[in-house]
Records
---
Amino acid sequence: MEPTKYIWMDGTFVPWAKATVHVLVHGLHYGSAVFEGVRCYETPKGPAVFRLKEHTDRLLYSAKAIDMTSPFSRDELMEATKELIRRNKIKECYIRPILFYGYGKMGLRPGGAPVQSTIACWPWGSYLGHEAVRVKTSKHIRLHPRSVVPDAKVSGHYVNSIMASLEVVGDDRYDESLFLDFEGNIAEGPGENIFFVRDGKLITPPHGMILPGITRDSVVSLAKDRGLTVTEKTVKPEDLASMDECFFTGTAAEVTAVVSIDGKKIGNGKIGPVTTTLKKAYLDAVHGKDPKHQAWCAYVG
Ligand code: PPE
């Protein structure tokens, strides 16, 4: 991780190395924190944070899932994000806001622990490391929707994603893992949503078991703008043989082609035309080059 100059912490900007906490913060012990992953891109009008409002809204929605009240409003968090980028004088970066239960209370009822908030940013290039990835179905299932609030981005949930990710570490046949849900349907990657293309039409697993990604939502709009049909429906592993293309979406992963699952090729095993079109559409939109979606770009100024 390449440090930047400042981190926003509880309302003030502190030098990167000074943004520290006590080892007894509640969030460290129990995962009682909520976070976002956001990206800022260079555009013809200067740096712009992609869908900052939607990410900030999701952060505050996630906080509610663990009965946390943010000390800062949506507008304050959005302004802090933009000011952080201005102060760090960075054109493109990954942004990581987090709200966590802090120091002063142990035990499983977090009420009484102070809520702390930080926003950091740093350069983060290719997340999956390849233009096209080979995926392995995890032996772990996506968290049961009744065990957690599945559409909240709670830090503790991510142990599930870590378990799945560790399965492909050191295995040079695979680049990323994939979760099935408790009913055996394809759910999502450990940090990405998934789409399939069959006969020129897009299919993606529905809300309910997944984190409903903001990239997923953007790609659905961009596909519809191009006259493509998008259906949200369950996909079973046995349906994979009939799919022509597959790709992951996510803030970190952007649009990344999936060319095989469990060693079996998807379509001809190459990056497909619909994936290529939507990847370009997404990269144009984040770089402020899609006139229809200017509202997605929060210009830092
Ligand atoms: N599912 C999961 C489980 C997930 O973590 C992400 C984001 C998505 C789907 C896609 O959501 P969105 O970014 O709104 O399109 N994963 C974040 C964390 C990655 C990390 O390793 O940290 C991200 O992409 O920033």
Note: The mean pLDDT is 98.
---
Amino acid sequence: MSLSLADWLAAQSVDPALTSALASMAASCAEIAVVLRNAPLAGQTGLAGHTNVQGEAQKALDVISNDIVLNHLRANPQISILISEEMDEAVHHENQGRFIVATDPLDGSSNLDVNVTVGTIFSILDAKGGILQPGSAQLAAGYAAYGPATSLVLTLGKGVAVFTLDASGTFRFTTDTVSVPEASSEFAINTARERFWDEATRGYVAENIAGETGAAGKRYNMRWVGSMVADIHRILMRGGIFLYPLDSETLAKGGRLRLLYEANPMAMLIEAAGGRSTTGRQRILDLTPSAIHQRVPVILGSAEEVKRVEDWYNRVS
Ligand code: AHG
Ligand code: MN
Ligand code: MN
């Protein structure tokens, strides 16, 4: 039987305090997996009846997942601050905990009622740095993807490891040879937003659609699950590029996806697996946040593709 997550972390000599923080996140994800599996029978699908700080209608499962993470992290003396998509303010625990956890407890919740993969994303930071640290300061980042299998995908900076939830509720080591291929011919973007796109996004996507007859000189395929976790998991496993660029409709908000608990952890994972991440104009991990729910443009994946998008942004200045 392959190593449990706990044994794997011990074998890597990961700091016990950080191991404990990761164990709390893993326990949260294992519990959320069970809730999701049974939700249609438990009558837990549908809306919760309120909106979160971002003005989005919360699903019952958004709230339940947030409570599960909150309960696990509150019980862990190593964690002093929790930031969640579903909570207006950062929650401060009365302890000397060394870590901040930022989380999107349930990503892709618009896919819940159609039984499509959703996920939990998390980022772990040193509490000494305060709540507004750049992504480059993350100590660890990961997500759980609740798909046909529940995968926990984790980076501590170098390399990315994948664990699979077994029937007993333990995450077991599956692989640590995750590498985002440099070249790819698969892109992920919500093309229904084309009329809002900027020149760089239009230029890049038009080249891809032109395939072997255009400047890219090869044929592309398009995939968009609409769960960032599912789209990024595919890209980590076989390459590709994910774009949620700044467009005329999201301009005022700064983008669609959130920096602290969506863009930063995913950028850390992608870079740790050899890929690249940018807003179009800047490396995501270099951004200094100004607010916990700050939004940013997100472009990440196979290095060659991300560089092509960056070239477009340079050209249109
Ligand atoms: P969340 O469910 O946490 O609000 O996040 C949804 C995000 C992300 O998962 C996905 O990539 C994107 O929103 C989908 O956006 P569209 O609705 O524009 O497709
Ligand atoms: Mn999300
Ligand atoms: Mn969410």
Note: The longest helix spans residues 16-42.
